Known about the structure:
mainly alpha, Arc Repressor Mutant, subunit A, Tetracycline Repressor, domain 2, 2 domains, 11 helices
Amino acid sequence: MGTSKNSEITCLKIIEAAGQLFAEKGFKAVTVREIVSAADTHLSALNYHFKNKEALYVGVLEDACRSVATTKEDQQALLKLPSTQALFAYVQGCVEGYVTQDGQEWRVALVSRNTVAPEAISNDIIQRYFHSELHFLSKIIARILEKPEDHPQTHFSALSLFGLMDAFGFYGVHTKGLSPTIVSNMQDSTWLAEHIVSLFVSGATSLKM
């Protein structure tokens, strides 16, 4: 398979190519032939690094979850901020992946796809990622609501916030036919985060459970 450095580069190319295809089409709609072609490599290389498509999908999704998850350092920093400011910073960090069109975009899209409609082989991975993020986000939201972290209203509010972020992420790409102002705003992560936080705080604080 060549030198260890070349092998590592090939592995990363396969992950990037497969990740973009899986994020766009889903697991079942992507063929191994497409992945190999997009990665500019050979089937033997894919089999060497990942054995089969299922193992590749698991590896790609785990990579995506690690990339988009809130690090321990960021969690500690956010929890030192005032609650609304911490929530804004968290939301802005999440929505930036939708609007910057950078290398993280497919990772955000793949995690979101699996959060909404998880594949059978990805369910355990998404559960671990989702529960970890939900637990952390509940710490911030509990301070806003003045409720315990494990209160039903706190958890439901956290779920609602995930839904808002995913909705703007998924449907934001379809705003090009609308007014230039909307298109411009949807590409501004600061504006979008402020809008989401405003909607969320208004709804969550008025909710009674």
